[in-house]
């Protein structure tokens, strides 16, 4: 070999050696860099991202306080402040402990759940604690049931909720979870999870809140501006290459923040105006679509049982004892606003907007802006009143003993309350409200018809309307004609057909009201006169309803059956619903004026006993008379329904409690399916390797971000992972595309890799690896 050839070979050898040495140095530098990142680099990066930990915590808590403002109209109770403050304090403490000790998510969740159990009664169910602090067994049980039933109670109880039952538990859970997640992620340098947590609280307040928004523009703008200031301004100080470059970077940051803030403000103002112009009415929330579980449509009309209550021995029986009821005021039992030609009943809220709906008893009925003298009436029930719960005036609150408020429903539109379990003997409670004023007997000429929406009358007593029309002039104002109709009825006489009284038929059907107008003299009682005036007022354009109740006529505080009466309320344009007493003054009936036809009236019938109260079904309708009683279901069907009732509820609770576990498994399964489909379509194996890498990460092995496939496989200690890494490297850096069969073969190696990674580990450790979300935090990578 010549000298030239030797020199050339020597130079090639030196170049090859230099190339190998450079590759070894680069590989060593990568290993050192990866080791530094794993041990110290990550801590350094976390330190840079959390250069303002105190300000980050303050920013998260301030944002949560802003988005918690919509909860106030939902509860409107001072204890809500305690609930919010407690949730923020416990959540922050749990987050600090989690970050300080580097706890996994499930350990943090256990801490939060334990804190909720211990502090839950004091924060959400103060009535079930000792001195408002020490939890009791009943309080712990109430917190547990509130986790399941509290969500439905929020949309079924009329607002404001106050501290009714366990309705504060959902708010506590949402705020506690949002605080823990937000503060934890903010301290770890990730701010977007905290923003999502705050958004969840805001959505909770809106979805479960009232139909009318509470400061929507102010709360929305404040939350967005606060979040932007935190995300853009409150961050580590920018440092450029030079001092001038640093100043330029900071000035640009401030300009971007200012432009973004102005843009958000403009969008909020314009968007709020557009939404208000397009939909000025109430917004649709969860309670809008919620169907209350008490429907009065099939309940017996209490007005039909009037005659049985005011005659015979029932007239002397004490029904209710009162203290504080103003003189001449009525203790309301029931309000009936629908007439089907047979009886006055409670209307259908779907066809009569003024009927409203019965919702669970609220903590407080908002009477802001209404005038009247505040009253407080103590009520003591002495007899079985069925589902009727006596109230006084425009109710502001009804305070029942603990445990007796179950099944209490209140209708704000009708100012009427019921208790599905029955208002039986021994029930004591207090009603506060506004001024149950005595009814009018004159002065109706100045009243103009109101605009309450009511359903059409099914059948009109024509003879009654024609007879009353003769007493007014068509040229008179509606109020003057209403007064004339009232004077027409006041000219009648009162008879209950009791012992020693002139016979008078009971009932208030259209035929009975026609008879009231055609017989001489006009004879009836509160049942007929109230129904007649309500029909006449409706014919004159006044929305009307019949109110059945008790009046303390002798002032002794004991209301008996003889003191039961009925009035009418008419809706007016200026004063709202106004009470009118259509009953004539009791006086002797001139029997000599009775006509021959009246003299041969049908013989007196035996007054039927008071009909039994139906707990599940208020008013018999014309088409319900021939409905047969429904047969009792067989025992096996009742057992099946009971099992199903408990199964889906317990299953729902278990699904919610285990959602962090099956949620991770579901997300990983979806990710695995997406990666495999992409590998099969592109004929690559990058997705298979990503799946192996995620299995290694979830097993607890720390993998540097810059680690190669072979380094990752070596760190895991799995031979199958090393072989798979080598095959994937050859497919990527070698001959290019794989065949479909080769891709499927590589994916088939995953179960073997998982088995090797779990070798030598306990069953509990393998389970924790399966449900670990560590690999999900890196996002959905493309292979």
Automatic annotation (TrEMBL):
The chain crosses the membrane at residues 54-74, 80-99, 106-125, 166-184, 191-208, 214-233, 254-275, 643-670. This is Transglutaminase-like domain-containing protein. Residues 1-10 have a biased composition (Low complexity). Residues 15-39, 584-596 have a biased composition (Basic and acidic residues). Signal peptide: none annotated. The keyword Cell membrane does not apply. PANTHER family: PROTEIN-GLUTAMINE GAMMA-GLUTAMYLTRANSFERASE. Residues 518-584 form the Transglutaminase-like domain. Residues 1-39, 579-626 are annotated as: Disordered. It comes from the Bacteria. The keyword Disulfide bond does not apply. Keywords: Membrane, Transmembrane, Transmembrane helix.
């Amino acid at each position: 070999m010549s000298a030239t050839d030797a020199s050339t070979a020597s130079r090639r050898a030196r170049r090859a050696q230099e190339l190998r040495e450079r590759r070894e140095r680069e590989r060593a530098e990568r290993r050192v860099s990866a080791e530094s990142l794993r041990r110290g680099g990550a801590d350094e990066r976390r330190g840079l991202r959390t250069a303002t930990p105190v300000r980050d915590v303050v920013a998260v808590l301030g944002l949560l306080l802003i988005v918690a403002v919509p909860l106030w109209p939902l509860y409107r109770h001072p204890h809500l402040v305690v609930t919010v403050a407690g949730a923020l304090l416990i959540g922050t403490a749990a987050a600090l402990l989690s970050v300080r000790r580097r706890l996994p998510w499930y350990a943090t969740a256990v801490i939060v759940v334990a804190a909720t159990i211990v502090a839950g009664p004091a924060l959400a169910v103060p009535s079930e604690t000792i001195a408002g602090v020490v939890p009791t067994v009943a309080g712990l049980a109430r917190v547990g049931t509130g986790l399941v039933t509290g969500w439905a109670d929020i949309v079924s109880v009329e607002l404001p909720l106050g501290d009714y039952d366990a309705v504060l538990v959902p708010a506590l859970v949402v705020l506690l979870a949002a605080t823990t997640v937000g503060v934890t992620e903010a301290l770890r340098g990730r701010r977007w999870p905290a923003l999502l947590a705050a958004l969840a609280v805001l959505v909770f307040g809106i979805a479960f809140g009232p139909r009318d928004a509470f400061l929507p523009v102010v709360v929305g703008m404040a939350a967005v501006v606060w979040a932007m200031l935190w995300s853009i301004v409150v961050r580590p100080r920018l440092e450029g290459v030079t001092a001038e470059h640093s100043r330029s970077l900071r000035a640009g940051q401030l300009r971007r923040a200012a432009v973004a803030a102005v843009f958000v403000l403009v969008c909020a103002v314009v968007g709020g105006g557009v939404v208000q112009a397009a939909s000025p009415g109430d917004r649709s929330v969860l309670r809008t679509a919620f169907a209350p579980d008490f429907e009065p449509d099939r309940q017996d009309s209490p007005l039909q049982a009037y005659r049985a209550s005011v005659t015979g021995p029932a007239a002397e029986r004490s029904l209710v004892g009162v203290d504080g009821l103003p003189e001449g005021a009525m203790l309301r039992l029931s309000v009936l606003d629908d007439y089907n030609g047979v009886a006055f009943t409670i209307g259908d809220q779907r066809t009569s907007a003024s009927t409203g709906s019965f919702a669970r008893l609220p903590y407080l009925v908002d009477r802001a802006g209404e005038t009247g003298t505040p009253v407080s009436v103590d009520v003591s029930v002495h007899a079985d009143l069925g589902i009727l719960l006596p109230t006084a005036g425009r109710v502001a609150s009804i305070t029942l003993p603990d445990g007796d408020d179950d099944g209490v429903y209140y209708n704000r539109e009708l100012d009427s309350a019921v208790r599905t379990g029955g208002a039986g003997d021994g029930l004591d409670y207090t009603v506060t409200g506004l001024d149950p004023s005595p009814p009018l007997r004159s002065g109706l000429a100045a009243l103009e018809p109101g605009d309450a929406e009511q359903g059409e009358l099914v059948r009109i007593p024509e003879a009654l309307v024609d007879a009353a029309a003769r007493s007014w002039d068509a040229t008179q104002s509606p109020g003057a004609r209403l007064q004339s109709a009232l004077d027409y009825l006041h000219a009648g006489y009162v008879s209950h057909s009791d012992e020693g009284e002139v016979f008078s038929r009971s009932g208030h059907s259209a035929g009975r009201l026609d008879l009231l107008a055609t017989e001489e003299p006009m004879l009836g009682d509160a049942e007929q006169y109230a129904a007649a005036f309500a029909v006449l007022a409706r014919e004159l354009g006044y929305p009307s309803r019949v109110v059945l109740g008790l009046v303390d006529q002798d002032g002794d505080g004991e209301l008996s059956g003889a003191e039961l009466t009925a009035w009418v309320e008419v809706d007016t344009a200026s004063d709202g619903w106004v009470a009118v007493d259509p009953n004539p003054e009791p006086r002797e009936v001139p029997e000599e004026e009775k006509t021959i036809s009246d003299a041969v009236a049908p013989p007196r019938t035996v007054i039927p006993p008071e009909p039994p109260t139906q707990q599940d079904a208020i008013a018999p309708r014309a088409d319900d008379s021939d409905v047969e009683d429904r047969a009792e279901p067989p025992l096996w069907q009742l057992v099946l329904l009971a099992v199903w009732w408990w199964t889906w509820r317990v299953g729902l609770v278990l699904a919610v409690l285990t959602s962090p576990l099956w949620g991770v498994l579901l997300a990983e399964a979806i990710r695995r399916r997406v990666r495999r489909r992409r590998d099969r379509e592109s004929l690559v194996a990058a997705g298979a390797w990503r799946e192996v890498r995620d299995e290694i990460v979830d097993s607890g092995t720390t993998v540097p971000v810059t680690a190669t496939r072979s380094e990752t496989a070596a760190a895991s200690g799995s031979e199958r992972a090393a072989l798979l890494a080598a095959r994937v490297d050859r497919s990527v850096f070698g001959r290019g595309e794989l065949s479909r069969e080769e891709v499927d073969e590589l994916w088939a190696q995953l179960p073997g890799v998982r088995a090797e990674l779990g070798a030598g580990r306990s069953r509990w450790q393998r389970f924790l690896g399966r449900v670990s979300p560590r690999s999900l935090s890196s996002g959905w990578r493309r292979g």
